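for the recovery benchmark. tokens below, seq after
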């Protein structure tokens, strides 16, 4: 496993997203298996665990805390997020303390602003100042954000004087590439790493689903990406990924994850509900797609038409 720097943190080039540990939104999730998945990830060199206070109302953090206790604190970079309802300055501080308690750690490695909230209308300055206080007080090692556009990044960074934003967690995968136009170039220029959530498009890029076989769990049932029209369109991409996968003796999902690592700025954080998935994720790195394969995939993507309109 290779490692990259996120600020001053040494992070595995692929992480483990722990939304599945919430055990509320995912029909396939089982706490014992998720703990085993974390253990298997650790054995294969994955050290980044990403969770959030909002996942299962803190349950995911508690599961991650159990894993950290079981497998050793020094083996992990623990990342979590403060939720949109807790963006006022005093609430950020309280939310962090609650997360620290659930995680069973003395310090959070990467504490992230989960998403900008248009309803609460809390000035970004207040939240960023609270995050910097947590940093200077030693409660967190680094500040990250999630779902930030360039304008949010620029404004948020302007309120920090003692540290900087080190990462931006965004939806990014082979078929959902909206961030490539503005956010990726900005983050590259400013050396802000991108943590790619939903790197397999909630399972679309595993090849397990089709227009006639769509997931039924709460978190994905209403995802328009799984519409019949989109699944037929995405099948063109899956056909190419499958062809590339056979050449490398890899799974389709592994090719999709490896495609993200073509850019050293990007760290995918796929989820895993069992050790087998964790192993597949970890073994999606450590090898490279060649230039011809990347061109083959990009040629297909250039003609891809995904719609979110009913």
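predicted aa per position
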């Amino acid at each position: 496993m290779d490692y990259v720097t996120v600020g001053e943190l040494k992070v595995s080039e692929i992480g483990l997203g722990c939304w599945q540990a919430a055990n509320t939104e995912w029909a396939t999730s089982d706490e014992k298996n998720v703990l085993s998945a974390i253990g298997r990830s650790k054995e294969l060199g994955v050290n980044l665990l990403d969770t959030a206070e909002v996942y299962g109302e803190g349950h995911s953090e508690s599961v991650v805390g159990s894993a950290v206790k079981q497998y050793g604190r020094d083996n992990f970079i623990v990342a979590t997020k403060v939720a949109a309802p807790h963006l006022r300055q005093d609430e950020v501080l309280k939310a962090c303390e609650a997360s620290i308690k659930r995680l069973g750690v003395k310090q959070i490695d990467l504490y992230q602003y989960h998403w900008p909230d248009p309803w609460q209308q809390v000035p970004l300055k207040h939240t960023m100042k609270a995050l910097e206080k947590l940093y200077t007080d030693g409660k967190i090692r680094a500040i990250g954000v999630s779902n930030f556009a360039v304008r949010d990044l620029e404004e948020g960074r302007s309120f920090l004087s003692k540290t900087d934003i080190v990462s931006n967690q965004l939806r990014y995968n082979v078929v959902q590439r909206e961030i490539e136009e503005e956010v990726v170039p900005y983050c590259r220029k400013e050396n802000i790493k991108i943590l790619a959530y939903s790197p397999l498009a909630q399972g679309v890029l595993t090849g397990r689903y089709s227009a006639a076989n769509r997931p039924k769990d709460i978190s994905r049932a209403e995802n328009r990406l799984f519409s019949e029209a989109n699944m037929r369109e995405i099948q063109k991409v899956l056909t190419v990924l499958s062809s590339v996968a056979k050449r490398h003796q890899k799974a389709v999902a592994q090719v999709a994850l490896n495609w993200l690592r073509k850019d050293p700025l990007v760290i995918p954080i796929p989820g895993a509900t069992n050790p087998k998935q964790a192993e597949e994720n970890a073994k999606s790195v450590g090898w490279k797609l060649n230039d011809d394969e990347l061109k083959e995939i990009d040629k297909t993507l250039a003609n891809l038409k995904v719609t979110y309109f009913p």
